[in-house]
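Q: Can someone sanity-check these two? First one:
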Amino acid sequence: MKKFLIYLLLPVLLAVSCPSSPVAQQDFDLSYTPQTPDTENNYPPETMSEKTAFAYFRDEKILVGWNVGNTLDSHISGRANETGWGNPRINQEIFDGVKKAGFDIVRIPVTWMGYIGPAPDHHIDEKYLARVAEVAQMARKAGLKAIINLHHDGAHDGGWLSVKKAVASKAGYNEVTHKFTRVWKQIATYFKNYGDWLIFESMNEIHDGNWGWGSDTVQSPQYDILNNWNRFFTEIVRGTGANNATRYVVLPAYCTVPKHTLASYFWLPPDSAPNRQIVTFHYYDPYEFGIASTRWEWGSEADKNKVVNEFAPFKPKYIDKNIPVIIGECGAVKQIIADKDKEEKARQNRLDYLSWVFGKAKEYGLVPIYWDNGATSGNGEKFGLFNRTNGQPISPESEACIKAMINAVKK
């Protein structure tokens, strides 16, 4: 991809594709100097590998990952709350257990709202930065690579990183974009000396409430905004220098949906550090089986072919061009059904699903990262596999699910 040519032509391209957008032709001033200096971290500089992202994933054998979900990303009344959604504080034991089970990388979703100060500085609470760093170090101590991001800050139902607000007016765009760039400037500054085991992901599932059901053929102003935010994120990270000059970065498309990630209107921004970008999408399809528990059957030829048809295009578009692709969230919930015969079949179908999805991810060069929210009971989405206190599988069934995923990518 001729990224720098795209960068030069961006205003023309966006003006042609979406002339009515209030932001399509806008750039943004990233040079703001805060009144309160951004928090520095005295963490000693670590050595970077100097490898491309593709070579790093290959040589480090990063094949499969796990999300420590519903912890640092949890929030109550507009404020991040690590234990607010029922999980204990993250400890060393959970990461040790995840590593022992065979996972290579952990995604640490982080919600920052409630710890971000008022405009224009948007100063992040130093203690919260330190807690995120503490958790990241636990992952590293366990021997895992780690990803941190902006997570529910972008929730369509209350998060400040609102694409709906940004698309509604120039003032809204400027307000949200300024906060986004300020937050990432501070995160990048704080973690700039960390080695390449720490990866930054710009944002999570940004959408307007429709979960990605946008147009496939006409470029929406919302897609333009996401492309711009990914570009500003990249420039901010690189501009902080030190190890961030070449740090690996993860870039999502609209709502992190496969079809938008493959579409022509999603593009990787220009980058002063060549070949350091990673693409991501999320996968829980079919929704009725993967999340909603309204369908207990899975495993027909049509079901299996759907996974193949949705994964296969990533290989020529990204993998064959040496751009790594992670499935940043994926999995299927545990189902509890009154009809015990159906429940037993649903549990077996879950194992088959995980084996197939993770196996096909490996076949097409994708790195699947299981979404674990810690939940195993109640009315919510039951993705939990590990005991968050001691790092052990919660049950024989959860252990079987873990082995199904690991065996699919490593056997």
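And here is the second, same format, sequence then tokens:
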Amino acid sequence: MQESDDDGRDRRHRAGSRPSLLRNLGVVHTTFIGVGTAIGASIFVITGNAIASAGPAIVLTYLFGALSAITDGTSYAELSSSMPNAGGGYHFVSRALGGIPSFLTGWFSWIGSAVDCSVGAIAFSFSVGYYVKWIEPFSLAIITLLIFAFINYRGTKSLGASEIVLTSILIMGIIVYIGGASLNADVTRFTPFFPNGFMPAILMISYIFPTFAGYETIATMSEEVKIAGKNVPRAIFLTILISTALFVGMTVATLVVAPLEVYANSPTPIQDVANYFMGPIGAFLVVVCSITASLTTVNGAMAGATRVSYALSRDGLLPTFFEKVHPKHKIPYRTLLLSLMISISFVLTRSVELIVYMISLGYIVTSIFVGLSVIRLRSKEPHLYRPFKVPLYPVTTMLAIGTTLFMIPSLSIEALVLGTLFAVVGLVMLTAMRRMRK
């Protein structure tokens, strides 16, 4: 108990003297960061495998994912508007539950965001390699991570402006893809709807879930959002609604316009489909979209990973060396470098499937603890100012926790083993740091 009290005093002391981050982001910037992170690289990489496994029923998988994202997003909206903080989910759980749950939340949120950068960089290199065959994709992915680390280093103004440009290009390209597919649709390709049975569609939920995670990035950026009580909830729900519409539209378009053999098991499935029904011009359009999506993923996820690890360091759960904020750019540049190193290490695994499932695991663990934090804070701090409240509480919150718990058994064995190893390493490090401070 004494150790816990010491930790609490240490964190309160840090909170009183911590460096502040600039509030540069409005609702438009914040929404574009969320959408850019959500409609990012993975949709251009995983679509072929997802449809090959679930068939046309993958549309239901995305709708279920959207339901989970909406219920989960209400928890993030309530807590982010009440206590905007660079730690996002980690900060909420720290205040509500404390102890090991708060550390694990921050730890897995950080890992999930850092690994999300990896899949964005890999998708970018695959897209470039669609035309430039001589480029080694994983080397290019590492170079991409280095470039966007520099963009993040320049500050949130640079980040927000670049995200608006990149995400606008992405959305326009996706709309053109969907519109072109509608003119060449063959609805008979929707039958059979469950070619491999019902279970594959259910098991794909954890595989596609990272595509909805833009709202978590918004929560981690909330300390830098102007009028966070209003703008953060708006940005969260706009992100979920826009991304869901585009996810479902892209998936339906892909299903009805080309036979499965065109894109199954391809690292560039959407490009292959566009080339099938629109020719080289269509393929080029989608390559541009894929490149843009990949870059928005790297941009937004790297920002989220940097803020979460910064919050961990600021609260003494990572070495204090990492809490340094750049005096000019107001960016926690040391945690940016640390997150970059993790992203590069996952690129070096060369396994897209492992990376996608690790992203999902990180977001699932965080989401479960965030939902529990809403429940705990409603009783622990009933008078906390809440500009936004979860509708139909506690039903909505319990549904959010239940749907994310449901996804855990559908993760890959490799991701579960590696996630357990990460948790053990983190807890050992936490114990060692506590003993050193004591």
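A (reply): Looked at the second one. Residues 269-314 form the longest helix (46 residues). Residues 24-423 form a domain with the Amino acid/polyamine transporter I fold (CATH 1.20.1740.10).
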